[in-house]
Fold these 2 entries.
Entry 1:
Amino acid sequence: MKHLLSIEDMNVQDAIGILDTATELSRINDGQMKKLPTLRGRTVVNLFAEDSTRTRISFEAAAKRLSADVINFSAKGSSISKGESLKDTAMTLQAIGADAVVIRHSASGAAQRLADNQWMSGAVINAGDGTHEHPSQALLDAFTIRKHLGKGSGDLQGLHVAIVGDILHSRVARSNVLLLALLGAKVTLVAPPTLLPIGIDKWPCTVSYDFDSVLPYVDAVMMLRVQQERMTELFFPNAREYSRYYGLNSERMKSLKPASLIMHPGPMNRGLEISAEVADSARSVITEQVSNGVTVRMAILYVLLAGAPLDVGSI
Amino acid sequence: MSTKYVLKSVVLPNGDKRDIAIEDGVITSISQSFTPDSHVVINTDGSRVLPGLVDLHTHLREPGREDAETVLTGSRAGAKGGFTALSAMANTSPVADTAGVVEQVYRLGQAAGYLDVFPIGAVTKGLLGESLSEIGSMADSVARVRIFSDDGNCVFDPLLMRRALEYVKKFGGVIAQHAQDPRLTIGAQMNEGEISARLGLKGWPAVAEEAIIARDVLLSDLVKSRLHICHVTTAGGVEIIRWAKQRGINVTAEVTPHHLLLTDELATTYDPVYKVNPPLRTSDDVHALREALSEGIIDIVATDHAPHPVESKECEWQEATFGMLGLETALSIVQKTMVDTKLMSWGQVADRMSFAPARIGGYVNQGQEITVGTVANLVVIDPAKNWQVDRDLTMSKATNTPYHGLTLPGVVTHTFYKGQATVIDSVVQEIGDVQ
Amino acid sequence: MNVVLSAEDISRALTRISHEILERNHGSSNLVLLGIPTRGAHLALRVAEIMANIEGTTIPCGTLDITLHRDDLRLRPPRSIMPTLIPQSGIEGKDVVLIDDVLFSGRTIRSALDALGEVGRPKTVQLAVLVDRGHRELPIKADFVGKNLPSSLDQSIRVSLTEIDGRDEVVIENRRQS
């Protein structure tokens, strides 16, 4: 792998390779979180053209634990907010000597544009592009599910995962559907019809409008954040009604199987898509997702950066 | 004294092989053999001659965006593609909504001298869709505007559309509608479907086009006026037009070369060179459009030639502007998609790309049968030759062709505009120097 | 190609090393064995088993992966990380014996010492190898050696173990053999 742009262009071996690497890294990390010298002398640039403190600090922590030099390049106050083009930004990063660029961008396909053009030579890691994909989030979600419910290493065969909420605008959902299906899990998307894209029948998953009919059968339920602005865009009548049909509250939680996991990529709207009791319950692995995020991102950086550059040839 | 030419052994649209002599701007002879010393002999054995192509949909960008294209560079691109008439869209800056602007564009076309530039007037003032522009004075101007369009924007207000259709009846004008329901296409980036869902790009549903076409053919029927539908892209749109024509409604329609060939699969590259409005659709739509053009349900091919500077395309998809170049590749794309597939004869190509558009626009001395005594607006194409598209070699000022690197059939070798060779051996001539 | 250690030779060498380790450390009570993946890990298990038979008690035995500490990562294609499994007892204050198949430049062992530093602070660290082929690039030496095999840089030493390769043997071969 040279870049991590989307789950769509990933195969099972790539995915399992990253998850296995993360598993080994988590064993080391379970002791003391010490710094590893692995990426000493490498430069990782966090290019965040869209605000996301959580993902940025996760990638930053991952890079720093592997001893890479980290440069944060955020939208606010940077040349991006002054209208600099993606091309000029990329060429600047090339001149700085970035070995990898972690890019978060509001435009779908921005990471692929960065990788496809000859503007820079480093690895490109998609940290969320528009409403397209968020592959590192899907990998950390799969890692979390595998750790709790998987049969050691390997895939997620036989598991059933529900993803609930604004599928239409969710890059997390897109990446998760593809990755979970790739790893052999069954995926059911649950949302009001307005928040499902046209053409979803071609996705490797099933779709339901009825949360309650799905809940008793799943091994993990992944709640998606509902953006406040969706309410003004006519997707559903109001927050109360959304919450009534698609929110996960303690009443609904009762119908889950005992070992089922509750997940959320964050940041949560407590009281809207998830109630506080559920978010803080014993079966919620939401904070664990955050710590697994660092480990999985270390694995991604390791796989992309630790070896010789791919174009140099192998021994 | 202008140069006299004779096209040796060229194949006419009806298949006959003849020598065509051109003198003083007109066709002076069509015969089995014509070889006087006074004429420059052009060996066109094996090539085909068609009436000069007429485009009803061209963005020449002048005035306002001369960094993307000018009337002169667009004219040269047109000549290279075999055109002898272009129709300059109204979405310039300032907008072509007054006699002053359309006359300026018209005169720039004449000064360039490569082909006729017929300005299209805006339907509404500033293309804002609020009030009618000075349609009458544009029609009465030197530019003699007959086609009115807010292209780029849809005339969405049904009352305004009705009034516009009624108003142009006075002088036999036509409203060319850009059929796009704006509410259904807020922030739209590409065809809505399986691929837009996968790519996370906001969808432009087919119904946004079809709903406007349906409304407007009914309005046209009500007020008995002429309606032209710009760049039809959907199988559903075709069906509505078919229905309207069966009812005798006075509607014509165009399809672009790119919608006859390309599909929304190309968006998977996220390369904005494939970003165009209306968007590339599915292969089902492409085949429906080809059928419709072949049957005559869609009357004409129009390029929607839309030049943009490099920086408007060298960026993220959603930041990029809509549009692609079309003039220099149009005839080759039509040969590839319609002639080589046996869907159309060359005679039908002459109709769809010359006779019919000239008739819709009411253009004088354009789109005429190739007969002795008519103005020599002609294009010669060698259908057996292939060429490779190179964006760095376009005559257009812009480089945003979606066909870069593609090998296409059919090379335009010569173009004659009013008897003058604007293209000789595929090389665009310097008209200014001659005059 | 030349077989320099047969299955029996390997078995005898490991038995001898096991005895030497026990002797040097006055028994097994404070010992932890850590094999370096992949072949070192299997050798460590064998040594632990031999010792267990001698001592009549189990010997803490684990693996220590050095991949993340290598100084030649950028020179080779990406490698997968192997398991690091530290026994329950930990290594704090223990006498740790690192076990590997071949000692060559010494860089692997340098990386292993770094990796060990992440895990804890042993009382002593010792090194046991099946083969020492010389050509050290760092000031590192083995405490326990199965066999010294002076070799030229043109040659390569290949260790095969039943657990991975289906048989036990050590061969020496010329690299540029056609």
Entry 2:
Amino acid sequence: MEYNLHPLGDNAVLIELGNEISQEAHEKVQALTAVLETQPPDWMTEYIPAYTTVSIFYDPLLIYQLSSDKLSYDYVCSLIKPLMEGLEASKAADARVVEIPVCYGGEFGPDLEYVAKHNGMTPEEVINIHSSGDYLVYMIGFAPGFPFIGGMSEKIAAPRRESPRLKIPERTVGIAGMQTGIYPIETPGGWQLIGRTPVKLFRPHDDSPTLLKAGDKIKFKPISLKEFENWKETE
Amino acid sequence: MLKIKKPGLLSSIQDLGRTGFQKFGVIASGAMDPFAHRMANLLTGNAENEPTLEITMLGPTIIFEEDALISICGGDLSPAINSVPVRSWRSIFVKKGSELKFGYTQSGCRAYLAVAGGFSVSEVMKSKATYLRAGIGGYEGRALKAGDQLVLGTPSDQSDRMTEYLIQQLQNQSFLESDWSITPELIPNTESNPFIRFTKGRQFELFSKESQQKLIGAAFDVTAQSDRMGYRLKGPALSLSEPAELISEAVNFGSIQVPPDGNPIVLLADRQTTGGYPKIGQVAFVDLPLLAQAKPGDKLRFVEISHEKAQHLYLEREWKLKELKQGIYLKTR
């Protein structure tokens, strides 16, 4: 697998696996993170995957102890080489599908009307299109468990708000440009808000603290306000 | 137990950060000045990752409901015990009933209070650091309030030896400072308007020649919109030589990113895990304490060094720290 290495501060190396957001780059990132998950190198402290890159963090002092004749960055680069050899892009076929129930419109989705008007359609049409798409979680970032999702139909695209809201409640589903996303915790933000899910995306006390992870596929399922209120986490 | 009489401006429990969860989008958090945090722990015989109290700008007033070995490192927020000023960067034995009061910052921005045994709070995602925005970690996931009661953990054998050493010399005082302290050459200079060493960021070459030179030559103000997440700087606007759409990727402690308005942001302890703005530079880790101790109104100047140099500086400081650790250990053996 081809890659480029770049330093990221004094304790990390960024591995570049592509230069545009694509299924291909995503599969490479997934292949590498699968190895880092199942056989974590003992010198690695953690890693951050993104659209086209994986950044690996390490303890420079430990690296120095492993190799006292090289600078920590150079030595880490030499350790990454065998890691990348023989690595093949993983197929997305075995991706997990996560269904996310969404109560669209009303007080949960104050911008649903705007998104509909902007695209010359009814709110129901927006809901239909949003909930019938096949979505892929490219990466997690911005906030704990916040998914960067690809695959939204451009028919329901809408620009960000000119002035961001100071508080967007957790679990709100929004649209910004060609992207759709879900806010796991209360944050300020400029997205157009179209609904809310009763499902918690950030679970700080669980072993796996986020509902979604990179590589997941998402299906949005419309639910009524009553279903939202009666929703109980099945897990 | 320590009782908080007044909380100060922003006092929160921090450790060296939440490692291993950034892949879930969970920010690292942890001490803004990791060096001062580690020194405070070292001077109380704690492991380096024990939680300390990070104190910002205007400090708290704390009542000791038991004897304790403490240390205060970092910025000078004029600490005093029972109205007698005490020195930073050393160990202090404090008797039950004493009042430790911090004032407004004299130099620097943040002080770290370590107590032998650490603060007994539960771990969330393997860390005791407070993640303020998500309301998790530390003391009930928030900054301290008046009336809070901090339970102390069990001191280490090293802490006990240090305490014994000080108690032997104690007469009638309510506290006693150690005759050992951090070597002055190791203490970062927290004077205002520091020079910050940085290495070229991954997108440095995308910036115009003019902007590259401005980053190095000009002074940047730390604006009031600066917090634990990052410092927003104001100086000459920096721009790319041509517009470029960047793809979000990981950022690090001290990454200097430039949003479209041209005003750089230095990312700090509560930074997001990933970012899509171009990174013009990366602050050398040895100079992170200088940043953490800069406050709104201060001016920063940036000095470029090579990535090799930054790594050497990092290792040199770690070795000195090791020597210091051994010195204290021998002294109290």
